[in-house]
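Async update (no meeting this week)

Hi team, since we skipped the sync, here's where things stand on the single-chain job. The sequence we agreed to prioritize is pasted below, unchanged from the tracker. I ran it this morning and attached the output directly underneath so nobody has to dig for it. Comments welcome in thread, and please keep replies under the output.
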Amino acid sequence: MRLKIRVAAWERRCTRILWTIVFSFTASLCAGATIGINVAGLSQPNTTAQEPDISGAAGPSSYAEFVNGAFGVFNNSTGVIRSQTTDQTFWQNAGISASALSDGASNPRLIYDPNSARWFATEITNTSSGNKILLAASSSSDPTSTPGSWSAISFPAAQAHNEFSYGDFPTLGLDANGVYIAVDNYNGPPQQGADYNNTSSLFSIPKADLISKTPAITNMTAFYGQNYESLGYILQPVIDFNPIKSKAVVVADNYDPLGAMGAINRFNIIGTTASGATLSSTQTTQLTQYAYPPSPRQPNGSGGFSIKPGISIPDDRYASSAYQIGNLIYTVHTVGLPADAVAPSSCAIQWSVLRLTSEDKTELVQQGMITDSNHDYFNPSISANAAGDVVIGYNRSGPNASDGMILSFVAVGSTSNGTISFGSSVQLSTTTVTGFHNSSGLWGDYSSMSPDPSNPSIFWFAQEIPLASSAGLTTGDTWGTEITEIVVPEPKLFVWILAVVLIAGRRRFCESHRFDSTGIIDAAGAPLTPPGRWIPDTDPESH
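Output:
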């Protein structure tokens, strides 16, 4: 009896060890990526904008990219561009008058919604006071812009009677019930030196009203003039493709009037299927402390503490989209390090995963930094899937001549036992430009990582890259974009087959090895091996 118990315990230990091998092998396979399509996207020669503000999304057969001044549609099987138009033409095709666009539009956002098989796009008009939010929905899963293929509406970005009647930096999110837009409130265009008043405006629009034959905002709920201290700085409505949803989620950078940095806010929009939506209380989750991000360094000596013209990036706001998968929310933004420095020396990327509990509390699941002392990391975006794959795309630069150029990278992580582990980053772009600077000096303001609606193992990344100027191959004053298909490994089926083979053969494995918790001893009782060692057994039948 004692022998049978001991053999059974030994077999259980073998099984646990084999499962550990399987899970470790799974994690090592998942922590990598294959690059599929990698093509040039829209660029500054297609528009007059000084920075792109990149937004992109994949549909069933197309990838659409929206940048300041231009809208393009690509075949997502070949990467070949199918159509391209100006943003002015895009909005006029959707029903916005030319007079409403007389001052131009900017800050595009774009999402494909697999639940409704519709695309949603937004921009703001650049009217110096009382500007409008433009919102369009496609009539089908084809994003091509032709007259009538999209339908658009517009509404005030801020309260018209308020001095701060300009809405800037729109963000866009959606879920099963609604489409959500937020703006930051100014008293004029920020690029013209306007002031802000520490408030944001948030809009909740039932999705059914937007995908009807005639889009309407009759049931829209507008939350004008929401204080930073109450909700946070730069409200980012979360994208959630779950077909069942009871409330919308919004995240934001926690605003501390004393200047402390290192927390994220989360609140809900309740009752989003009709008018009269309400906001929940705000919950704050502490993250690792950080500082304001400096200008990224380049090999030409710009950035950091240098006064040489280079590029400037947005602050620590959550500039790119946040995604919810199940009850997990994935976020990423640029921060400055060291956290306690008056003048931080480098840019880093902070990512975090939040869990929404059944009691509607926010828990920090995991957080991390992408950083090293020789480089600056900035302009990130993130997405994930239900299998626990997490993909972060970003720019990297630095002072070294060999690898300090502004490049595009992607890092792919996998989740094992609730913990995300990232493999080595993959470089996506190359350049000879060692010093980039244009008239605005702006870079970004955001990049775009989005999931493929047809394959959960595919993600699409659109990022800004420098183009060489006519003055020489090492100087750049013109931006381009790069569209990349990222395929995360799918070892699951292979690993389960491996697991079945290993576990089925565990008895043979166990019988061919002897293990003793006290070590192997000789006839006199002297230890021959340390405790806990694996010893091949040349005569398994002897026991």
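Quick observations from my side:
The first strand starts at residue 34 and ends at 40.
Residues 1-31+489-519+526-543 form one domain.
Reply here if anything looks off.
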